[in-house]
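Troubleshooting: if your tokenizer reports a length mismatch, compare your output against this known-good record of 132 residues.
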Amino acid sequence: MNIGLMANDAKKKLMQNFCIAYRGILSRHELFATGSTGRLIEEVTNLNVHKFLVGELGGVQQLAAQINSNEIDLVIYLRDPNKPDKEEPEIMNVARLCDIHNIPLSTNLATAELLIKSLDRGDLEWRELYKS
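Known-good structure output:
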């Protein structure tokens, strides 16, 4: 499955730790991330990440285009609710597109862990049928 990964600046370390913890599961899937998030994940996990541009330079829009083409199966976006992101309109578009295409979206660590464990159990295999 194709997994989209994004993180606000204040949550990038948390995203790294999440990817370290779930490296075994993530290694069996294709990972896509905004530029700096992808680079940071690669540095600590040795996972191969397809990196888009840095979020503020168009990476969020590139991920949104993949979502709109129904090419992403799961999105994990670790956001900082205490600090508005300058890409907030683009992020809201990602959420809207996930809703349109029935793509599971996590915006916090608790939901990210639930989704990644569901993915590991095979609970998201319905996405393959939905994409057809």
